[in-house]
Amino acid sequence: MNLKKELKSALDFCKANHLNDGRRIYINILKKYPKQPEALANLSVIEAMHKNLDAAESLLERLSNIQKLSESQLKNLINIKYELNKISECDQILNDPGFSGDHNFKFKLLFKAKLNRKQKNFDLREIEKYLEKSPDDLEVLCEKGLTLNFFGYHKEAILHYQTMLKINNNDSNTQYNYAIALKNNQNYQDAIIVLDRIIRSARGLVKESRLELIVNLMFLNRYDEAHAELDHLIKDDGSNFDLKLKKGYLYSQEGKIDKSLSIYDDMIRANPSYYQAYVFKSFCYLEQGKFREGWQFYQYRQLEKPEKYLVNDIKHKKLNSEFVLAPEQGIGDQILFLRMLSLLDKKHDITIMLDSKKIKDFVEINIPNAQIIVNQTIDHLDHEKIYNIGSIGRFLIDDKEDLKKIKNWKVDECLRDKLYTDTKAKALNKKIVGISWKSFNKEWGDNKSIELEMLKDIINVEDKYFINLQYGQVENELALFNSKKNLIDNSHGIDVTNDISGLACLIDICDYVITVSNVTAHIAGAIGKKTFLLTPRNNGRMWYWSFKNGQSSWYPSITIINQEKKESWQHSIKKLKELLD
Question: Is the separation of the CB atoms in 508 and 457 below 8 Å?
């Protein structure tokens, strides 16, 4: 092998955007010269571009054992580890001597802001300090706006972006993020105006703006216009299956399920390995209560995003008498699926793996015969006996009659009684009402959340005593809401973010609960607590919030107040008030 010639050939392929050819040559080089630094560095870039992040990380770490990584390589490595959710390792790299010097200060500042968002840690102090010296730095100003928007400070984000546009009114990135903030604040028409301006200017982010425009049009029930915009994108890029998937989803939001299913079927025939079509098809069936068909297609979520799953259990045709459940999805979904285990007889030997100790005590109370393990690998386990938690439904739920047989979960009675005694003394014979208004789901959280101020007429009543059930960093929001009159008690002493069993006890002492679609809703439904659940009409309304005559199919104690067409949260709150009165 002529190493110099092969390296040049690989690089030429990469420059010509023939990455697969370049990748093949670099792999062959590393088979013969496993420590060749140029091949390691360039192959890591290719793997990262192909989203093979584990391989990209491994290559850069091999390179770091041979030589000191350059600044650009360190930046690549930290971005890869960020995507792999290796936050502590990101912190280590930021403190690497290779990142010393004033010229790296801004990169570290911006990356720390990203880490804070990832860790749900709201902190703008360093950014504000930097902006005192450089008030017109659009890159740092943008990071501030992203942080405000991410943590739900949409009004503040809107004002912030308006200030940025005074500095540069033609910056497409600022305009785009401004439109996102407007959408998150439910100013859909204003967002449409901004997005249309970006599209007409053709300076950048045109495709992204069209996609956001479609979402905003959908929120305003302007489906014909949304379809027209989507058709425009499909015409320009007919091979893009993601766009066709959005077409099917758009029909489902209109209630035209048959058209949705027809599109998904066409996509599956055209590309059987496009697994998202199977998953979206499953949602249509599951929401309709057609569980056998739904579970059949729901399995394919494991192939859609295989990196999220410890195992692939599609080949399992039955539930073994001894089995292991591997974690997936969020805490709320885990509660939804784990409740189904009450349908099993006691002959099963069950091990439940959890990726967070937050829920461990709550699960142990309700599935006492199961072995619970937290944050452990599966290497020592028999893979033939491992199932993902979300797969349990296909073995236990065939129809809506099976849902009625699921038993309610219990709470820690000692803690519950103490909380009840303490709270009852403060409530002074008023009804105790639990309140939760936010979801932190990274995809749908904004659509599922309500501003606390919008609930003030529900909360500011003399005969109710409200207690906080909202998890996450909401202390500032709660303090602001309570500044004029202490309307929501948060003195119960329970860490509602990290102690799910304690949160369940708090919920149980309530006469009833008001919540949006989040973990609180699942816990309240699981223990059979009377609950009023506010759900959005489209993006963010999950498949399991199906209902008949207002009652949840999965949790009979939950009354679902769903936004209908052309309705907003104000309409939902009005309906809630009528039910409470």
Answer: no
- pLDDT for 566 equals 66
Nearest to 558 by CA among 523, 517, 530: 530
The residues near 215 (Cβ < 8 Å, ≥ 6 apart) are 183, 539
Cβ contacts of 239 within 8 Å, gap of 6 or more: none
Q: Which residues contact 488 (CB under 8 A, 6 or more apart)?
A: 435, 459, 466, 467, 468, 478, 481, 482
pLDDT mean by block of 10 residues, the chain; 581 residues: 89 90 93 93 92 91 91 89 87 78 80 84 89 91 92 91 92 94 91 95 91 92 93 89 94 92 95 94 94 94 83 85 90 95 88 92 95 82 85 93 95 96 92 95 82 91 94 89 87 94 97 96 97 86 84 94 80 92 78
Exposed, middle or buried by CB within 10 Å (0-12, 13-18, 19+), for 484?
exposed
Query: What whole-number distance in Å separates Cα of residue 9 and Cα of residue 11?
Result: 5
DSSP one-letter code for 385: G
Concatenated DSSP letters for 216-234?
HHHHTT-HHHHHHHHHHHH
Beta bridge partners of 372: 352
Q: How far is CA 81 from CA 74, 76, 87, 96, in A?
A: 11, 9, 7, 14
For CATH 3.40.50.2000, list the domain ranges present in the chain: 413-580
| Residue type at 66 in one-letter notation | I
Q: Quick one: pLDDT at residue 245?
A: 94
Lateral strand order in the sheet of 547-548: 488-489, 464-468, 431-435, 512-516, 531-535, 558-562, 551-552, 547-548
Q: Is the pTM of this model over 0.70?
A: yes
User: In CATH, what number does 413-580 get?
Assistant: 3.40.50.2000
**Closest Cα to residue 242, out of 217, 216, 207?**
207
State the CB neighbour count (10 A cutoff) for residue 254. Answer: 17
Give the span between the Cα atoms of 247 and 82, in whole angstroms: 32
The domain defined by 311-404 folds into Rossmann fold (3.40.50)
Q: Which residue has the tokens 């709270």?
A: 423
In this prediction, residue 307 carries a pLDDT of: 74
Q: Which residues contact 24 (CB under 8 A, 6 or more apart)?
A: none
* C-alpha Rg value of the chain to the nearest Å: 26
Per the CB < 8 A criterion, the answer to whether 113 and 143 are in contact is: yes
Residues in the chain: 581
